[in-house]
Please model this.
Amino acid sequence: MPKINVYLPDDLATAVRAAGIPVSPVCQQALAAAVRSVTGVRAAIELIRSPDFDPASHPGIAEPMEARMTARLSGILRLARQAGGGQAGTTHLLTAVLDHGSTQALGVLLLEAIDISPDDVRARLAQAAGHAEPGEGEGPGEASGGLTRAAWRALAAAAEAAIEMGHHYLGSEHLILGLLAEPDSTGGRVLRELGGDPAKARRVLASMLSAYRYGREKTVPPGGGDVLAEVLRRLDTLESQVASLSR
Model:
């Protein structure tokens, strides 16, 4: 049987030994669950990107992605759908990222880290209101399931970015990456016009998360408490889920 090494933080390794948790079967179950999750998300992404995609024919299409969403991103989607009258486009998604919750949300922080001011985004969105280009899939009736075709594609791109970056959750920061990956949509065009670059945004996000993980074992930088707390909450949730598999 092939062997895979699993590395744990010192405190978690100590806790695992103290609890007498059988590491091998727990890891096998966790990895099997992760494979099923990623496979489901990839299948959803492929369907969404097909030219004849009709969400009405796939009522559960969002479920694999919703299972990985943070509470914040779920709230962002609800807010966007409300703003769009049940048919949210990429402008509604981008506005909801700015409007939902704290300014310390990772999606907002990512924008600022790539030198895009939230105020500038709001100004450009106001200018773009009602001027979506024909055929880009932002108009009413272009799709169903509460999202336009462009918004579905942005969500699919967000899920793909999360998987490619090795993240086991889907957050507002990934939605920003997804919007940047859809330059022909209104929301994506706004971000591009403000200097947004998908490759740069990924690099910056990776650096941000690496810094937060390092900060978990060191001291919290001034003003970083809210952001670090959010990342720690996500990491602790993942650790709890793995631990629960042994019970």
